[in-house]
Q: What sequence folds into this?
């Protein structure tokens, strides 16, 4: 019985890894005051960049493929930073556009990679008799590192202050625009890394709609965990367990498979409603979603 529980936790962590990485990226974005609804597109473009590099040659470096995914995610998010930080456009509209651009571009550019073999995937590690992806270990370490960075370092405090009260941070000499630019690009890099997990480790292939809605769940997960990196681990584990149940129960239950496919998205609505009832949305950074203009109140 204990082995079954541990196996379920390990599988849930594996499925929850891209959710955790993408939600950490969204936390970085939103702690700086910038809403990013485009994680679905960022994950898609990151997955494509990683697979394109890894499938280019039998001896292609997987580390280079991972780096390519992070650079691709950050590069795509430059559009979002330009629109929201520099041009002060509506952050929600820009994020939705980013999701469409990312998924559309990945689908178009990735057609030539569909069905191609991956010469070498990221090898799993064996820990305690169970196989674990290095991406999972890295995601857990990043969650702890980000929590420490935000709560115990001066740059982390600067990032949080820009998200809470950019005017006050500006008075203290903080370059609000630069901090927000870096926050958006850093979050984009983590979103791209989440995509690399999908194409290099979890599925080890490329196909259109690679993210499969995980980016949207990650955005909602940030609200559910109250913008806390350590709570994001528990949230990702919870939704990963739902996906694990979906795979285990399909074909072994009289319930139509469409019900299981919709279950994670239905649960997103439920947990967000519960978070709203608890007033959890009130813990959002005070400056979230608001463009900053020096001298305006």
A:
């Amino acid at each position: 019985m204990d082995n079954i529980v541990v196996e379920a936790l390990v599988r849930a962590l594996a499925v929850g890894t891209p959710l955790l990485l993408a939600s950490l990226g969204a936390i970085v974005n939103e702690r700086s005051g910038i809403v990013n609804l485009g994680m679905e597109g960022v994950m898609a473009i990151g997955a494509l960049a990683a697979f394109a590099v890894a499938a280019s040659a039998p001896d292609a470096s997987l580390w280079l493929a991972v780096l390519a995914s992070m650079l691709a995610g950050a590069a795509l998010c430059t559009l979002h930073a330009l629109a929201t930080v520099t041009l002060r456009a509506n952050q929600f509209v820009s994020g939705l556009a980013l999701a469409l651009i990312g998924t559309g571009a990945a689908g178009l550019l990735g057609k030539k990679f569909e069905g191609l073999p991956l010469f070498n995937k990221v090898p799993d590690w064996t820990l305690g008799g169970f196989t674990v992806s290095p991406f999972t270990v890295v995601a857990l370490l990043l969650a702890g590192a980000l929590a420490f960075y935000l709560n115990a370092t001066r740059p982390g405090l600067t990032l949080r202050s820009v998200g809470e009260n950019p005017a006050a941070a500006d008075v203290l000499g903080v370059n609000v625009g630069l901090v927000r630019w870096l926050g958006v690009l850093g979050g984009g890099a983590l979103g791209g890394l989440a995509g690399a997990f999908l194409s290099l480790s979890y599925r080890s292939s490329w196909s259109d709609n690679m993210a499969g809605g995980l980016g949207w769940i990650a955005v909602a997960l940030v609200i559910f965990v109250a913008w806390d990196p350590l709570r994001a681990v528990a949230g990702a584990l919870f939704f990963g367990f739902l996906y694990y149940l979906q795979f285990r129960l399909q074909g072994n239950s009289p319930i139509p498979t469409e019900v299981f496919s919709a279950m994670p998205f239905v649960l997103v609505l439920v947990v967000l409603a519960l978070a709203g009832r608890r007033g959890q949305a009130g813990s959002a950074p005070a400056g979230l979603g608001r463009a900053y203009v020096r001298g305006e109140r």
